C-alpha cells in the first residue's frame, strides 16, 4: 500500500502510457489490486472496436483512434463501486479522449484520459476546443507529448508552448510528477516527462503526484492522489444486503401485526397497506444477520514478490546508469516476471474453473458473467443540445419522454366517440352478486407460487420475504385483499411503479426513444392481481370474449401454434400454385397508449359491476418514477396504457383489441399486438384485394379506438413459387414496405418457405454465443458432463426454438445447425480427427437435429387433438388443411411424424 497522508480517504488516479495494454494486462492487474487504485487513465491502448482488455471490478470506457487500427487511443478504468457518469468521447486524429464525471466535495468533476500522437501539430485553439468539452472542473491525464521546462521537462517543444499558452489563458494547472516518466531504449534519446495531468479544480481539493515503478513499458506510471473520498453507488434495489434470520423475522412481524384494524373505507385500506409495508421493511432490517467483517487480501506467492522487488531494483539501476548490460539484466527479469504472472493467472483460473458446479449454482453464475454485456449508464442530451451529466437530469429526461408516451392518441379519436364512451361510463351500473371472498389458504397457495427472481417494486419487498410471512401477517393481508374487493378500491401505494430503462440493441444511446422501459411493481400488488385474475378468467372464457385467433398470453397457447397456422396456409398455397400474400402489422406503442376510457367501456359491458369497479380503481390515478442509478424522478401521472409488468395487463390488452373486425377471405394470426393477415388465390390481384379489404376494416377500427399503426415497420410479403407480383397494400393511404422474408414471433419466414434465412440467422447467433462461452467449453479443468450441460442449456435452445416447423427443411439447410452441433461436441471432448460425428453423438447420447425435430413435433402433435381452441385442433390433421395434392418433392412439418 502506498504510504502517504492522502491514501486512506482519497481518490487514487493512476496514469500510464502502456504502449499496448494487452501485453501488460497481468502487471497492471497486480498494481490495481495491491495499491487500491480507483481510476486508471491509459494512453496508447492500441485497442480496436473488437479488441480490448477488461479487469475484474472495473468498468472500461475507450476512445480508439478514428481509423480503428491498433495504435494510439485512450481508456479509463474506473472502479465499479464508484458513483459516476460516463461522458461522450472526443476522438480525432490529434487527440483521443474518454471521460467520466463524478462528485468530489459535492462538486461535479470530470476525469478524462487523453492521448496526443506526436506527429500532429496542435495549436492552442485545438487544446481549448478539447478542454471546453469537459465542463467547468476537470482533471485530464495522459501522454500529451507536450514538453516544457515550466513543469520540469529537460526542454520545451512547440506543443508544450501551446499547452502552456492554453493554461495561462484558461487558468488551468499542470500537475507533473517529480521525476521522469519516459525512458527511451535508445541511448541517443534522453529521459523526460511526457505523462502529466491538466487540472482545473477548486482550491479546496488538494493533490499530490508521485512516480511509480510498476507496471512498466517505455513509460513509468504516475499516481495522482486527491484528498477527497469518492462517493460509492447506492444499492437502491435491495431491502437488506445481509442474510435474514427468518425465524426472528416471523416472530417480530407477528407481534407487530394487529388483526383488529378497521377496514371500512378507502383511506383505511391505504393506511393498512402503508402499515403492512413499513412493518415488513423494518422487520427485515431488525432481523438482518450482519456477517463478520472480512478483509479482502490479495496475496502473491513469495517467489513472485521477490522477483518484483528484483525487477524494480534492476530498473532503478538502469535508469541511473543507462548501461546496456543493466538494460539486458532488467529486460531478462521483466520477461521472467511476465511469464510467471501469466502462469500464476492460468493456475488460478484452472482452480476456479475446476470448482464450478451446476449443483451449487456457481456454474450458472459464472456463465452469466461471460454472457452478460455491461450496459453503461445512458448518455443523453438536454433539449438545448448539451449533455445531461447527472443522474437526476437523465431521470427527468426519461420522465418527460414517458409522460408523453403514456397518453392516448387523442389526435386519432373522434369527439363523437369520446362523448359516446363517457356517456356510457357515467350511466348506472347493473346489480350483480357480490364477489366470493379470498381465503387465507388461497392467498398462501399463490404466495408459494410466486417466482423468486423477479425484481421488487419501490418498496423493495421480494418474493422471498413474502414466502416467509407468518400466519398472522397472511391473515392480515387476506383481510386487506377482501376489503379491496368489497369496497372496489385499489390502494394508491400499489399503483406506483418504478421504471428503469435498458438500451435497445443497435440504437443510438443519446436519445430517450432508444431505451426500453421496464416497470417494477410492488409484489403485494401483483399477488392480488393473480387472485383477481382467477376470478375474471372464467367469466372471459365462458363469454368467449377473446377471439380464437388471439393466442397471446393465453393458457396452452404458444407462438409455435400461431406460426404453425401461418405455415399451413403458406404450404397449401405452394402446393396448389397459389399466391399467398400477407400483411404483418406493427402497432405503435400498443400497450403504453391504450385509451383508459375505451378499455373501461368494454370492461363495463363484459364484466360484473364489482370486477369492473375494482379494475376502474386499478387503472385510475397511477403514477410512475424513473430510476437512473440511485436517483428517482418526481412521480408522474399515467394517463394511458395497461400497466407494464402487471399480471392483469395482458388480459386487459387482449380484451381491448378483442372486437377487431375479421373477414371470411383472410386468415388472421394474433399474438397480443403482433398481427398477421394472409389471403391466397391463383390471381395475385385477388389475393391482394382480400387483404386490402380487411385492412380497410381494421383502419376504421383503429381510428375509432385510438390505436396507431406504424406503417413503416409493417411488412407486406407474398409467399409463392410463381413469378407474378401482388399489388402493393395500403394502410392509412401509405404503402406497406415489401420484403422477401418476414420476421414473425421469433422465426424468419421466407417467400418460398425454405427456412434458409431463419437457419442462417440462428447460425450467426450460435457462433456469437459460442465465442462467449468458449473459455468454459474448451477448459480442461471443467468436467465433460458439465460442458455438455452448458451446451444443452445455453446453446441448443437458441436453435431448437421452432424446430417443430423448420425441422422439415432440406438437409442442405438443416446441416448448418448439425455442423455447429458436431463442432461443439468435438471441441468440448477434444476428439481427434478420426472419431466420427456419429460416434460423438452416440457417446454423448445426443440426438441429431433431424432426430430432435421428429421428437419435438411428435410431442407437440400429441397435445393438439384435445385442445380447447378449435383452430389449434385443426393443426392435428394428418395432412395439410384442405388436403391438397402432394405436388412438391419437399417435406412439410407433418412429415416429421413418419
TrEMBL record:
InterPro entries: DNA/RNA_pol_sf (IPR043502), Endo/exonu/phosph_ase_sf (IPR036691), Endo/exonuclease/phosphatase (IPR005135), RdDP_mobile_element (IPR052560), RT_dom (IPR000477). Residues 483-749 form the Reverse transcriptase domain. Pfam families: Exo_endo_phos_2, RVT_1. Keywords: Nucleotidyltransferase, RNA-directed DNA polymerase, Transferase. It comes from Schizaphis graminum. It comes from the Eukaryota. This is Putative RNA-directed DNA polymerase. GO terms for molecular function: RNA-directed DNA polymerase activity.
Amino acid at each position: 500500500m502506498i504510504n502517504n497522508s492522502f491514501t486512506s480517504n482519497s481518490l487514487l488516479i493512476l496514469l500510464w502510457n502502456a504502449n499496448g495494454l494487452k501485453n501488460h494486462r497481468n502487471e497492471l492487474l497486480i498494481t490495481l489490486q495491491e495499491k487500491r487504485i480507483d481510476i486508471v487513465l491509459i494512453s496508447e491502448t492500441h485497442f480496436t472496436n473488437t479488441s480490448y482488455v477488461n479487469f475484474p471490478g472495473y468498468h472500461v470506457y475507450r476512445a480508439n483512434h478514428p481509423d480503428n487500427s491498433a495504435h494510439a487511443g485512450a481508456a479509463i478504468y474506473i472502479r465499479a463501486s464508484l458513483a459516476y457518469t460516463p461522458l461522450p468521447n472526443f476522438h480525432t486524429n490529434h487527440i483521443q479522449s474518454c471521460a467520466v464525471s463524478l462528485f468530489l466535495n459535492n462538486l461535479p468533476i470530470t476525469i478524462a484520459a487523453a492521448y496526443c500522437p506526436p506527429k500532429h501539430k496542435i495549436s492552442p485553439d485545438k487544446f481549448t476546443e478539447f478542454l471546453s468539452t469537459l465542463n467547468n472542473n476537470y482533471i485530464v491525464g495522459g501522454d500529451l507529448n507536450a514538453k516544457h521546462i515550466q513543469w520540469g521537462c529537460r526542454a520545451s517543444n512547440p506543443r508544450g508552448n501551446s499547452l502552456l499558452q492554453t493554461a495561462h489563458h484558461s487558468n488551468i494547472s499542470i500537475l507533473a510528477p517529480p521525476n521522469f516518466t519516459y525512458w527511451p531504449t535508445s541511448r541517443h534519446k534522453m529521459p523526460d516527462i511526457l505523462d502529466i495531468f491538466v487540472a482545473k479544480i477548486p482550491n479546496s481539493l488538494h493533490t499530490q503526484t508521485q512516480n511509480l515503478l510498476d507496471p512498466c513499458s517505455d513509460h513509468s506510471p504516475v499516481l495522482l492522489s486527491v484528498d477527497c473520498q469518492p462517493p460509492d453507488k447506492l444499492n437502491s434495489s435491495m431491502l437488506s444486503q445481509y442474510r435474514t434470520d427468518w425465524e426472528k423475522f416471523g416472530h417480530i412481524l407477528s407481534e407487530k401485526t394487529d388483526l383488529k384494524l378497521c377496514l371500512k373505507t378507502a383511506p383505511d385500506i391505504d393506511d393498512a397497506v402503508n402499515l403492512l409495508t413499513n412493518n415488513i421493511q423494518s422487520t427485515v432490517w431488525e432481523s438482518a444477520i450482519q456477517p463478520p467483517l472480512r478483509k479482502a487480501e490479495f496475496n502473491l506467492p513469495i517467489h513472485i514478490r521477490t522477483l518484483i522487488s528484483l525487477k524494480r531494483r534492476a530498473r532503478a539501476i538502469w535508469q541511473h546508469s543507462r548501461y546496456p548490460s543493466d538494460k539486458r539484466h532488467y529486460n531478462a527479469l521483466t520477461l521472467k516476471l511476465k511469464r510467471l504472472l501469466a502462469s500464476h493467472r492460468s493456475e488460478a483460473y484452472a482452480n476456479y474453473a475446476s470448482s464450478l458446479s451446476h449443483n451449487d449454482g456457481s456454474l450458472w453464475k459464472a456463465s452469466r458473467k461471460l454472457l452478460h454485456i455491461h450496459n453503461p449508464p445512458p448518455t443523453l442530451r438536454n433539449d438545448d443540445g448539451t449533455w445531461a451529466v447527472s443522474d437526476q437530469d437523465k431521470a427527468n429526461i426519461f420522465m418527460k419522454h414517458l409522460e408523453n408516451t403514456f397518453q392516448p392518441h387523442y389526435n386519432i379519436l373522434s369527439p363523437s366517440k369520446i362523448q359516446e364512451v363517457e356517456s356510457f361510463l357515467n350511466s348506472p351500473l347493473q346489480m350483480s352478486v357480490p364477489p366470493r371472498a379470498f381465503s387465507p389458504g388461497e392467498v398462501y397457495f399463490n404466495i408459494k407460487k410466486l417466482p423468486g427472481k423477479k425484481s421488487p417494486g419501490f418498496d423493495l419487498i421480494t418474493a422471498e420475504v413474502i414466502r416467509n410471512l407468518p400466519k398472522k401477517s397472511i391473515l392480515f393481508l387476506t383481510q386487506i385483499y377482501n376489503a379491496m374487493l368489497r369496497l372496489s378500491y385499489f390502494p394508491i401505494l400499489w399503483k406506483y411503479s418504478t421504471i428503469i430503462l435498458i438500451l435497445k440493441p443497435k440504437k443510438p444511446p443519446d436519445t430517450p426513444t432508444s431505451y426500453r422501459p421496464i416497470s417494477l411493481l410492488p409484489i403485494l400488488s401483483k399477488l392480488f392481481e393473480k387472485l383477481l385474475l382467477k376470478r375474471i378468467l372464467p367469466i372471459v372464457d365462458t363469454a368467449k370474449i377473446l377471439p380464437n385467433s388471439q393466442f397471446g398470453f393465453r393458457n396452452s397457447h404458444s407462438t409455435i401454434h400461431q406460426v404453425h397456422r401461418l405455415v399451413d396456409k403458406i404450404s397449401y398455397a405452394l402446393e396448389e400454385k397459389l399466391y399467398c400474400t400477407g400483411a404483418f402489422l406493427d402497432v405503435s406503442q400498443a400497450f403504453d397508449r391504450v385509451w383508459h376510457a375505451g378499455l373501461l367501456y368494454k370492461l363495463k359491458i363484459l364484466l360484473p359491476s364489482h370486477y369492473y369497479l375494482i379494475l376502474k380503481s386499478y387503472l385510475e390515478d397511477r403514477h410512475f418514477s424513473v430510476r437512473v442509478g440511485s436517483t428517482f424522478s418526481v412521480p408522474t401521472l399515467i394517463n394511458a396504457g395497461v400497466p407494464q409488468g402487471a399480471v392483469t395487463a395482458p388480459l386487459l390488452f387482449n380484451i381491448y383489441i378483442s372486437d377487431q373486425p375479421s373477414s371470411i377471405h383472410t386468415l388472421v394470426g394474433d399474438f397480443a399486438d403482433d398481427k398477421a393477415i394472409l389471403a391466397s388465390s391463383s390471381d395475385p390481384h385477388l389475393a391482394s384485394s382480400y387483404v386490402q379489404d380487411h385492412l380497410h376494416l381494421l383502419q376504421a377500427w383503429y381510428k375509432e379506438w385510438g390505436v396507431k399503426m406504424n406503417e413503416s415497420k409493417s411488412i407486406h410479403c407474398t409467399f409463392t413459387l410463381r413469378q407474378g407480383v401482388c399489388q402493393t397494400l395500403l394502410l392509412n393511404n401509405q404503402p406497406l414496405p415489401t420484403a422477401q422474408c418476414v420476421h414473425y414471433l421469433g422465426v424468419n419466414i421466407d417467400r418460398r418457405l425454405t427456412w434458409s434465412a431463419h437457419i442462417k440467422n440462428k447460425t450467426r447467433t450460435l457462433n456469437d454465443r459460442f465465442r462467449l462461452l468458449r473459455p468454459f467449453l474448451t477448459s480442461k479443468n471443467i468436467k465433460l458432463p458439465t460442458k455438455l450441460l452448458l451446451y444443452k442449456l445455453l446453446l441448443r435452445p437458441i436453435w431448437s426454438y421452432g424446430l417443430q416447423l423448420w425441422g422439415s427443411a432440406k438437409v442442405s439447410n438443416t446441416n448448418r445447425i448439425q455442423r455447429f452441433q458436431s463442432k461443439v461436441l468435438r471441441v468440448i471432448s477434444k476428439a481427434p480427427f478420426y472419431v466420427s460425428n456419429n460416434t460423438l453423438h452416440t457417446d454423448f447420447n445426443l440426438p441429431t437435429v433431424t432426430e430432435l425435430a421428429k421428437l419435438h413435433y411428435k410431442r407437440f402433435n400429441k397435445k393438439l387433438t384435445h385442445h380447447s381452441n378449435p383452430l389449434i385442433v385443426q393443426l392435428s390433421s394428418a395432412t395439410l388443411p384442405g388436403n391438397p395434392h402432394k405436388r412438391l418433392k419437399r417435406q412439410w412439418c407433418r412429415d416429421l411424424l413418419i
